[in-house]
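Go through this:
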Amino acid sequence: MRARRSVALALTGVLAAVTLAACSNGDAKKDTAGSGSAVTALNVGMPNGPQTENHNPFLGSSSGASLGYRWMIYEPLVMINGIKPAEKGKPWLATEWTWSDNFTKLSLTIRDGVKFSDGSPMTADDVAYSFQLRKDNEGLNTDAIPYGTITASGNKVDLTFTKSQFTNQNKVLTVFVVPKKQWSTFADPTKDVVKNPIGTGPYKLKSFTPQTTTLEVRDSYWQDLPKIKELRYTSYNDNNAQTTALSNGSSEWSFVFVPNYKAVYVDKDPDHHKLWFPANLGIHGLWINTTRKPFDNPALRRAMDKVINRDDIFNQGEAGYFYPKIESVTGIPTPAGESFIAPDFKDKKHAVDVDGAKAELASAGFKLEGDTLKDPTGKPVTMKLTDPAGWSDYITDLEIIKDNLSQIGIKATVDKANQDSWFKAIDEGNFDAAMHWTNGGATPFDIYQNIMDGKILKPVGKGGVSGNYGRFNSPEATKALDEYANAKDESARTAALNTLQKIMVEQMPVIPTSASNVGGLYSTKHWVGWPDESNQYAPAQPTQQNALQIVLNLKPAGA
């Protein structure tokens, strides 16, 4: 699983990885007062391993982000449907919003009558402060939003931006609100551990252990209180432990890869065990550290792309259902992104071409001596492919890629990393290559921005990034991203997107393998009202912001 398959992980996205025997024996914890009592708790699980307590909602590596419960405590200004991002959002902490001057100005009307969990009122000052925090702290402004002025008056908050925010509309509107009274006391909000989370959401922290975080419903809330009185977030050791818990009912909601999902999950309780994995416009692929030689050479990256077998990754690594394979050489998922693909690449699809890869390498000064590829300096080409040990689909993908790369003499190894150390290594650029996800959005801009944007480029060793993990440095790509974001008309926007596709194909900073989704597995035994193909009001993933919307929509089965 990936924490932001966010992002998303990472999420994933993706989307992530103490054996919890007590949580995997089918003894689902229920609040009952006899056999006829209704269940009042919902058990949510993620395969992310033991957690370190940190409820800081800004940090993607925090326990609140890893398990998804931050969204039950902290709320957005506007709730955007993650699978229909082009649709108008649902008013949440903001009741109205107006963009003007080519998306360089935003006026927000803040909802009255909202209180934080400590009983204090939420005001426009808190909202303005939540934006100011992001402006003043680069580590919190993970989307590199170019904030200008931020002012509050009465129930209004007005913002200006130094550039058009056409592409970032939803990112700005979905900003979550924190209380100024608490956060102004922190020495460094980009690093401080939050043990007492205070938000406007319907839940507050009840207890924490490295295995399970429990939230309890508040006494009052600006909307109707949810029917679920308690949320229990259990972090299982790996995908297998999480799958077992789903199968036996001790976990009722998760985002996890399940090989042979029908036999090991659905068939265990076909009336109640459901899954829904709607696609979004994001991708998964092999992120390459472009600062490390010889992988700073685009010819080597293009050759690697030519030998990776996406059919094997889909059928073996992703069990033939989880993440559809990427076919377009641009990395744009189809059919969702078909209309965006440039004319030059309309009919060009990924295909295994070992001979073509060898020719590509030879022309760039690489030599294949026996079964060993040597770079132009005569040094053997080796690389470490790394992902957390519990992410079984990604690990299988890496094993396939390792074998594929051996066809052109690259000696690759697969490192099954500790999740915390892996996140740190990716964040700081201390890796060779890793399977990872991109952001998703209403257009392919978010994919390319996540991969290539120079504005979020940081030197190796400096963390707090939200994309461009491969440290890809292309002024041309950054310029095209700016031109797309600030375009005055659709033709200019199309020209910029076509340039980005050309850079992706020619320089291959990420080798795309799979399309993303924002899915989930859930049980209708105790709770109903989940989103599905016939009711697509939200993505089904418990680590997405829309998870709050789902929890508010759930009702006891049979009620």
Q: What stands out?
A: The two ends are 33 Å apart (CA to CA). The chain has a mean pLDDT of 91.
